[in-house]
Specification:
This protein is mostly helical. It has one domain: Ribosomal protein L20, C-terminal domain (c-terminal domain of poly(a) binding protein). It is built from 5 helices and no strands. The chain is rod-shaped and about 85 Å long. The chain starts with 6 loop residues before the first helix and ends with a helix.
């Protein structure tokens, strides 16, 4: 009796990898074994960088708040300490947005906690 293999499932599995490798350079886009390694590595980077993105944005927000706070004569750490003491419920994302796009609103927040 001949050996039975599920060619339909095998082809579907390989096509899924090749489709995910679309746009890659050289053999990475059309040689299955190379594409499989490239796609696996890309998925690892994607998983890692979804977490790193949160860190990067937080660093950006802190830098923006610090720059705006120093223009008002206060450091970032002092500002955040006073905001927590006064129980102002604004997070860093909102504060950074105010500092960039609405400086007069940010200035009023800083003056309210001084």
């Amino acid at each position: 009796m001949p050996r039975s293999v599920n060619a339909v499932a095998s082809r579907r599995r390989r096509k899924k990898i090749i489709k995910a490798a679309k746009g890659y350079f050289g053999a990475r886009k059309n040689v299955y074994t190379v594409a499989k390694n490239a796609v696996e590595k890309a998925l690892q980077y994607a998983y890692r960088d979804r977490r790193n993105k949160k860190r990067a944005f937080r660093r950006l927000w802190i830098a923006r708040i610090n720059a705006a706070a120093r223009q008002e004569g206060m450091s970032y750490s002092k500002l955040m300490h006073k905001l927590s003491q006064k129980e102002v419920g604004l997070n860093r994302k909102v504060l950074a947005d105010l500092a960039m796009n609405h400086p007069e609103a940010f200035k009023s927040i800083v003056n309210s906690v001084k």
